[in-house]
Design brief:
- The chain is α+β, with helices and mostly antiparallel strands.
- Residues 419-427 have low confidence and may be disordered.
- It contains 13 helices and 23 strands.
- It has helices at residues 19-31, 46-57, 84-87, 95-104, 123-131, 161-171, 187-197, 231-243, 259-268, 305-311, 331-338, 368-380, 401-407; strands at residues 2-5, 10-14, 36-40, 61-64, 70-73, 106-110, 135-138, 142-146, 153-155, 178-181, 202-205, 209-213, 222-226, 247-251, 271-275, 278-282, 291-294, 319-323, 343-346, 349-352, 362-364, 386-389, 411-414.
- It is 30% helix and 23% strand.
- The chain has a four-stranded mixed beta sheet with strand order 21-22-1-23, with helices on one face. The chain has a four-stranded mixed beta sheet with strand order 2-14-16-15.
- Bound molecules: uridine-diphosphate-2(N-acetylglucosaminyl) butyric acid.
- Residues 20, 23, 91-92, 115, 119-125, 158, 160-163, 184, 188, 302-303, 325-326, 368-369, 397 line the site of uridine-diphosphate-2(N-acetylglucosaminyl) butyric acid.
Length: 427
């Protein structure tokens, strides 16, 4: 549990490597048949550790150094069955499906888990495997697939990020070009493309279709990837700075990856200055109301919808966020209501009216991004401290979050947890 007090954030913060670009990097290394997979700029967050546990279960091992570099030794990897409990802790692990199919022609995975933000089926991942000609058996607890690639075309019914990553990974086994229609274009998918291009896989793409040509891929023992900065962490700090009326310089950002976020912040009246890979944000007391559509890239990211919900309570009028990716991603709304938020949920729309949040309440974080939104709420609420239960869930995806906000002047206190070592947050 964490106790937060109203604070104005000021100073500089450096963004860590992207959590969601880590999983496809592991997948790319496996699919390419590498014995050693080196991944630099890895955020040391809980979901990354779970992925490494999965790798260990598959017969690999790994080392982590203090420069955020992870080396996975994958020579002994085999497509054995993975423990259901471990696998169900994260979503990103699902890329193991495509990676093992590419490397061994077979895979057996339990259903993945991840944040509970609505339905998260894997029917499109299965469709991709079947379209390529793999024989797929759906079991009560997971999916088993084997075979060789005969198909050359995958058409997704909806845009799916990890589904697209899996399709690309599976295609590495093909002896012909593979076309992927209606693919997701998130920066993490684009990074997977770059990882593979580095080792000879060729790609052609337009807005709708991605063609993977794996015929010239290099057979290498070792691969080396560097993760891009985490765009969702960067967006969280932008919104946090704006909501607390703070002034924060955010370093190590690729601004094109958060183009829509910057556009919407400017529209609201947040002062934003972009300079190469740095963004300076200056907040103010009130903002213009917004209409935001949270959808696939390049639209506004769903992973910043809960954080934006908090900021828009400072708008001078009614704002609307349409959540088109995970319509049920509203757990934060009900917690914010306990703090005085005037919000309505209507279908996939979150309607936000100007509200003054008050502290002294106990709220509960139900998932990673709602934890971030409740922190922002706690830092902007008047009165006594805001208590966030299950706050620890933030460690799934934000590296040293408390250390970073403390350095920016956030006032908080962390209650000792059982088994928790003396955590010091470097100033
Ligand atoms: N969907 C299906 N069938 C499928 C796959 C997806 O119906 O087979 C639906 C989902 O239910 C959802 C939509 O398609 O409504 C999009 O889901 P997508 O597959 O794109 O999400 P994901 O790949 O499971 C990744 C990120 C999420 C992020 C979403 C959307 C990783 C590990 N996770 O999830 O990140 O919200 O894309 O951008 O890359 C987070 O970091 O907090 C997080 C949840």
């Amino acid at each position: 549990m964490v106790f937060l007090l109203k604070s104005y954030l000021k100073g500089e913060v450096k963004i860590s490597g992207s959590k969601n670009a880590f999983f496809p990097a592991v997948g790319a290394g496996i699919a390419l048949g590498a014995k050693v997979i080196r991944i630099r700029n890895t955020p040391l967050v809980r979901d990354v550790h779970v992925m490494l546990e999965i790798i260990s279960e598959l017969g690999g091992w790994y080392s982590i150094n203090d420069k955020n570099e992870i080396v996975i030794y994958a020579e002994e990897l085999s497509p054995q069955t993975i423990d259901r409990e471990t696998f169900s802790k994260i979503r990103g692990g699902v890329v193991i499906f495509g990676a093992l199919l590419a490397r061994f022609g077979k895979a057996h995975i339990p259903f993945p888990g991840g944040c509970k933000i609505g339905k998260r089926p894997i029917d499109q991942h299965i469709k991709a495997a079947r379209s390529l000609g793999f024989y797929v058996e759906e079991e009560p607890d997971g999916v088993k697939a084997h075979g060789d690639i005969k198909g050359t075309k995958i058409s997704f019914d909806i845009k799916t990020v990890t589904g697209t990553e899996n399709a690309i990974l599976m295609a590495i086994r093909s002896e012909r070009e593979v076309e992927i229609h209606n693919y997701a274009r998130e920066p993490e998918v684009q990074e997977l493309i770059k990882y593979l291009e580095r080792y000879g896989v060729r790609f052609m793409m337009d807005e709708n279709t991605l063609v993977v040509d794996p015929r010239y891929r290099k057979h290498v023992d070792e691969v080396d990837f560097e993760l891009i900065p985490d765009r969702i962490e960067a967006g969280t700090f932008i919104i946090c700075a704006a909501s607390t009326e703070g002034k924060v310089k955010i370093k190590n950002v690729i601004s094109e990856h958060i183009g829509k976020v910057i556009e919407k912040m400017k529209e609201a009246g947040v002062k934003i200055r972009v300079d190469n890979n740095e963004i300076e944000v200056e907040g103010c007391r009130n903002y213009e109301p917004l209409h935001v559509i949270a959808d696939s890239y390049p639209d506004f990211p769903t992973d910043l919808q809960p954080q934006l919900t908090v900021m828009l309570m400072k708008a001078k009028g009614k704002s609307v966020i349409e959540e088109r990716v995970f319509p049920e991603r509203v757990s934060h709304v009900y917690e914010l209501m306990k703090m005085g938020a005037n919000i309505e949920v209507s279908g996939n729309k979150i309607i936000i009216y100007p509200s003054e949040l008050h502290g002294g309440e106990v709220v509960e974080a139900k998932d990673l991004r709602s934890a971030a939104s409740l922190v922002i709420a706690g830092l902007t609420a008047d009165g006594g401290p805001t208590f966030i239960r299950n706050f620890e869930i933030i460690e799934r995806g934000y590296e040293n979050f408390l250390g970073k906000i403390q350095k920016l002047g956030a006032k908080f206190y962390v209650e000792e947890r059982e088994g928790m070592k003396d955590v010091s947050y470097p100033a």
